[in-house]
Design goal:
Elements lengths: L2 H11 L12 E4 L4 E6 L9 E8 H4 L9 H22 L12 E2 L6 E2 L5 E3 L3 E8 L3 E2 L2 E2 L1 H19 L7 H23 L2 E6 L6 E3 L2 E4 L15 E6 L3 E9 L2 E6 L5 H10 L3 E2 L8 E3 L3 E4 L7 E4 L17 E3 L4 H14 L4 E5 L5 H4 L3 H6 L14 H8 L2 E5 L12 E6 L2 E4 L1 H10 L17 E4 L7 E2 L2 E2 L1 E4 L3 E4 L2 E4 L9 H16 L9 H15 L6 H4 L16 H9 L6 E4 L30
Parallel strand pairs: 15-22, 15-23, 18-21, 21-22
Antiparallel strand pairs: 1-2, 2-3, 3-7, 4-7, 5-16, 6-7, 8-9, 10-14, 10-17, 11-12, 13-14, 19-20, 23-24, 25-31, 26-27, 28-29, 29-30
């Protein structure tokens, strides 16, 4: 059908009951594009209608080079969704009737460039997926108003966002190249023995505590690398760039209050994602397996082996398979570390401000007062370097309140007026001249990592006879009969990621991956492999129920496996069977070389490299 048919149909619906809008579902040919109306809302107050617009690739005018390779394709899709959102703000009148009448919206994200379902670029076509609130007066169709949106405003939006000639070609190119450079830089880190890179000229402070926009350049000090840690890389588009490389091992970031310690760590935390040009953190890049660790009082923990960090609890509580409905600060932080290691993290990011004090350090005077046999916690200071030696797990730690960490740090960076200085040698001299009388605790071993297998039926999206999956921002995921608090999972940065996580969990159940034999790490790998092969569309409940691809809601963004694991680990219904490595069997723990054979309870390996 052509757009004239749609116009006549909408005009004929004017004044009829709202459900009459169901008649317009279908595909309509316009001059340069096809409009797909995939889902029509049944009420003006319900979730808005889902639509797509598709332009043939040749007609769109986008050069093939703009989408060569995954990094470029994702960045181009990201740019197009943002361009469509900008055109909406410019041309759409907004509310015109009751409920959601007149709204037009697309999922276009914030400062991060994420793979999304809102846009799709292929060799054959370019497509955008968006929502429209079909106009109503009360619960009666405003067909002529709907025609003004679909037949008048939407063609303008398409022309301004899906035509290369209508866009700023330089801006499109810069967006795509920025993402490609960040991906290339991230891949260069490991082969250079680095865990992170912060470019000269980077702007790390944000506008405010509730805004992720950069602080105005006239009010900030641009980052400059200290000579001792300065490295340079050749990138595909920007060419040679220089900045601070943070090496593998234990890195301590210290300095006075309000001098930028936590700001640097926050930038590293977000450096697992690519950022848009102008963000200030375009070349602040962190290894993709970095996980921010913090205390999280009150979270549920299910059969996690926290014994390397906490053992011999009162009343004989078993910390080799520790479970609780209400974790303390220290037990939650220990569980967060072990869970991250279990699913493959080799870089921990920790800030003393969000850590349990008794988990981080037990100083010499406290050791004198409280004997070790009465203290179940092995403080992190006594395991942080062991983690690197045994498992190749590096740590970047912000610590301004305890010099005891000087003794275990490989690199010490002092922040002063938001600028880094390397003070490793000074820290070592202090240690040498003031030998501590603090005794190391923990026995000098971390031990093997234990795999955990979710039992069948424990991950259940059903609520009564129906399945219930939804999100509330980035803080809450409703999954079946549970409300899961993910507000302190700090690298979950987008509501659409949260939405995708919920659907990934449902996909894991439907695909049969929650079978009692598949470990958490294997489950994540299978789900992410499905997404890699079929795109985020494969997790759509509409597709799972047999509806066409176009019924996808268009509001998913790709999360990392670490955030999916965090959601699953916080389910109060989760039930686990542990799978411990047998002595002499190949070890699959994070950082172990393929085929490495471990003694029971001890990997017994050297640091990587």
């Amino acid at each position: 059908m052509d757009h004239v048919h749609l116009k006549r149909k909408l005009e004929s619906l004017d004044g009829r009951g709202y459900k009459a809008y169901k008649q317009i579902r279908g595909a309509y040919s316009f001059h340069r594009f096809t409009l797909f109306i995939d889902y029509v809302q049944g009420d003006p107050y319900a979730a808005p209608s889902r639509l797509r617009v598709r332009v043939p690739r040749e007609a769109s005018g986008f050069p093939p080079a703009l989408s060569e390779g995954r990094a470029r394709r994702v960045a181009l899709e990201d740019y197009l969704a943002r361009a469509f959102r900008a055109a909406i703000r410019k041309h759409v009148k907004g509310r015109r009737g009751s409920g959601r009448s007149g709204m037009v919206d697309i999922d276009s994200g914030g400062q991060e460039i994420l793979e999304r379902t809102a846009a799709l670029v292929t060799d054959e076509f370019v497509e955008l997926r968006f929502v429209v609130g079909l106009p109503a007066a009360g619960r009666r169709c405003l067909g002529r108003e709907a025609q003004a949106i679909l037949g008048g405003e939407v063609p303008v939006l398409v022309e301004e966002s899906l035509s290369h000639g209508s866009l700023d070609a330089g801006s499109v190119k810069a967006h795509v190249e920025a993402a490609e450079d960040q991906q290339a830089l991230r891949e260069l880190l490991a082969e250079s023995g680095l865990v992170a890179f912060v470019a000269d000229g980077a702007v790390l402070p944000r506008e405010s505590g509730v805004s992720d926009l950069p602080l105005g350049r006239g009010r900030v000090v641009e980052f400059r690398a200290p000579a001792e840690l300065r490295v340079e890389f050749d990138l595909p588009n920007r060419g040679r760039v220089g900045g601070m490389g943070i090496p593998e091992g234990v890195t301590l970031v210290t300095g006075g209050g309000y001098h930028g310690k936590s700001t640097l760590l926050k930038a590293l935390e977000r450096g697992v994602y690519d950022h848009v040009p102008g963000d200030g953190r375009e070349l602040v890049v962190t290894r993709a397996d970095a996980v921010k660790i913090r205390a999280e009082d009150g979270r549920r923990v299910e059969k996690v082996d926290i014994s390397p960090l906490i053992a011999d609890l009162p009343f004989d509580a078993d910390t080799t398979a520790f479970s609780t409905e209400n974790a303390s600060g220290s037990t939650s932080q220990a569980a967060n570390i072990v869970e991250a290691l279990e699913v493959g993290s080799r870089l921990l990011l920790i800030d003393e401000d969000t850590s349990a004090t008794n988990f981080m350090i037990r100083d010499e005077m406290m050791q004198r007062l409280i004997a070790k046999e009465k203290e179940p916690i092995t403080p992190f200071i006594d395991q942080v370097d062991t983690l690197y030696r045994e498992h190749g797990v590096s740590t970047v730690l912000v610590m301004g309140g305890s010099g005891d960490y000087f003794e275990v740090a490989d690199t010490v960076i002092a922040m002063e007026n938001y600028q880094p200085k390397v003070v490793t040698q000074q820290a070592r001299e202090i240690v040498a001249s003031h030998p501590g009388r603090r005794r190391r605790e923990g026995g000098g071993r971390f031990g093997a990592l234990v795999e955990r297998c979710p039992r069948p039926g424990c991950i259940d999206p059903a609520r009564g006879r129906k399945e219930k999956v939804s999100v509330r921002g980035t803080k809450t995921i409703v999954f079946g009969s549970e409300t899961v608090d993910v507000g302190l999972v700090e690298q979950l940065v987008d509501e659409s990621q949260a939405r995708a996580i919920a659907e990934m969990a449902r996909h894991a159940v439907r695909a049969g991956y929650v079978d009692g034999d598949t470990s958490m790490r294997e489950l994540l790998a299978r789900v992410l492999a499905d997404v890699e092969q079929g795109g985020l569309d494969v997790i759509s409940p509409h597709i799972a129920q047999g509806a066409p691809t176009g019924a996808h809601p268009g509001d998913f963004a790709l999360p990392r496996g670490f955030e999916l694991a965090a959601m699953l680990n916080r389910l109060r219904s989760l039930r686990i069977e542990q799978r411990r490595p047998a002595a002499g069997t190949p070890c699959t723990a994070a950082g172990h070389a393929p085929g490495t054979r471990c003694a029971a309870g001890s990997p017994g390996r050297s640091p990587p490299g």
